[in-house]
Design brief:
There is one protein chain. By secondary structure, this protein is α+β, with helices and mostly antiparallel strands. It has two domains: 211 residues, no CATH class; 149 residues, Heat Shock Protein 90. The protein is built from ten helices and seven strands. The strands form two sheets. The protein has a five-stranded mixed sheet, with helices on one face. Strands 1-2 form a two-stranded antiparallel ribbon. Helix 6 runs antiparallel to helix 7 and helix 6 packs across helix 9. One of its GO terms (cellular component) is membrane. Keywords: Coiled coil, Kinase, Membrane, Transferase, Transmembrane, Transmembrane helix, Two-component regulatory system. InterPro entries: HATPase_C_sf (IPR036890), HATPase_dom (IPR003594), His_kinase_dom (IPR005467), Sensor_HK_TwoCompSys (IPR050482), Sig_transdc_His_kin_sub3_dim/P (IPR011712), Sig_transdc_His_kinase_ChrS (IPR017205).
């Protein structure tokens, strides 16, 4: 019941019980130097009580009192030791979480019994007055400041008066000495209490820091999941969704051709469907493998394949659109610009060419790739119907489109612009998608 054990760990969450504003530890955190000091103080109080109780008994027995008197003191000493030990053992088990029985409501009665037995022991043996010093610590820990102060004063009065009344000790020295001891014990307790509050303050700060860290980690994880989800959605939109859309359009065209008896056109369209499905399968495997590009094809080779596939699909759909590719002479062979730049430029070209073929009703599309000292440029021009870029918004059905292209380019530090004018009278004036991205020296190969 001596639940001032408190910081035996302020590893600790120190909560206060009304039975003495006594901090109760929570052993959920690591031990600290301050917590160890507090536990040492706590244990020292209990050890001091036990040692002084034994010394008092030995000194009393050495004085040669009558057997009856000695038997009474020994019995009273044993009873006091048992009651005190019972309270401290329960408190230790409760603080350590080894028992769920909360007997703190009995703290007041327990302290009253301990002090009552001690007073009786002082009446029979003045040597027991030295037990007052650890009892001061215990009393202050288990009672409020006013109640504790009055109780300690009463105990000191017992020490000063009872030995004189029982003619066991006389003199002012004993009274003054015990008073100094009481003050020292009280100061020790208040120091202990101050350290306890400081430890609790540190614990609260540590918990706040941990909570803040956990919130930041959760926010970072959530942001990472959202970013990865958006990135993966863009990849699917720019690869698989475009492929599925082409397959859908081609299959409808093939059915129409079959209904009209144009078996040759239907066969050509089915061949394009097969090629498109194969490309989509390759892209799917690549996405599953690493979540980025469908394969490590250099940019120039990928753009050449893109223009050929776009023309073939357009032909299969009955369009006469031509798709040209102009490549800077500094980019030789089938090389590229490397890494993320190749991937971003390819995705922009795929989206822009697909939009021009599908939506712009263009007759000519030109893809131009240029390399300068510190930057590369990609321009996709079509002569189809223009549109108002500011009026384009991403919806659940429109996919990522311009927003996705713009974000891809921004992620590699580039600039993305769209120049297009919608004109109902002229049928439009075409669209230019322009990209500028920084590259390192020697980036073109």
């Amino acid at each position: 019941m001596v639940s001032f054990s408190t910081d035996r760990t302020i590893r600790c969450r120190l909560t206060r019980t009304r039975l003495g504003d006594v901090p109760t530890p929570d052993r959920s955190t690591d031990r600290t130097t301050l917590a160890q000091l507090l536990e040492t103080l706590r244990l020292s109080v209990h050890l001091a009580f036990a040692a002084l109780l034994v010394v008092a008994l030995v000194q009393f027995l050495a004085r040669g009192y009558s057997p009856t008197h000695q038997a009474a003191v020994v019995a009273l000493t044993a009873l006091l030791a048992v009651v005190y030990l019972a309270g401290t053992v329960w408190e230790n088990r409760f603080a350590a979480g080894r028992t769920t029985r909360d007997l703190r409501r009995l703290t007041g009665p327990w302290l009253s019994v301990v002090l009552g037995l001690w007073v009786l022991l002082v009446v029979l043996s003045a040597d027991a007055v030295w037990l007052l010093f650890p009892l001061v610590f215990v009393t202050l820990a288990l009672t409020g400041p006013w109640t504790g102060g009055l109780t300690v004063a009463a105990c000191w009065a017992v020490v000063a008066v009872v030995p004189v009344l029982t003619e066991q000790r006389t003199g002012v020295g004993g009274i003054i000495g015990s008073g100094i001891g009481v003050l020292f014990a009280a100061l020790t307790y208040w120091t202990y209490l101050r350290l306890t509050r400081e430890a609790e303050h540190h614990r609260q700060i540590a918990e706040q820091l941990r909570a803040t860290r956990d919130r930041l980690l959760a926010a970072e994880n959530q942001a990472g999941r959202l970013a990865e989800r958006e990135r993966f959605s863009r990849e699917i939109h720019d690869t698989l969704a475009q492929g599925f859309n082409s397959v859908l359009l081609l299959s409808r065209a093939a059915r129409t051709a079959l209904d009209q008896g144009r078996e040759t056109d239907a066969a050509a369209q089915l061949e394009v469907i097969t090629t498109t499905a194969h490309d989509s399968l390759v892209q799917t495997r690549a996405l599953v493998a690493d979540g980025t590009r469908e394969e490590s094809v250099p940019l120039v080779a990928a753009l050449r394949q893109l223009t050929r596939d776009a023309e073939r699909r357009a032909r299969a759909l009955g369009s006469d659109v031509t798709v040209d590719l102009d490549i800077d002479d500094d980019i030789t062979g089938t090389g590229g610009l490397g890494g993320e730049v190749d991937g971003a430029l390819l995705r922009v070209a795929q989206e822009a060419v697909t939009n021009a073929v599908t939506h712009a009703d263009a007759s000519h599309i030109r893809v131009t790739l240029g390399v300068w000292d510190t930057e590369a440029t990609l321009d996709i021009f079509d002569d189809g119907r223009g549109f108002d870029p500011s009026a384009v918004h991403r919806t659940a059905t429109s996919g990522f489109g311009l927003a996705g292209m713009r974000k891809r380019v921004a992620e590699i530090g580039g600039e993305f612009t769209v120049d297009s004018v919608a004109s109902e009278a002229s049928g439009g004036s075409g669209t230019v998608v322009a990209v500028r991205v920084p590259i390192s020296q020697g980036g073109a190969a």
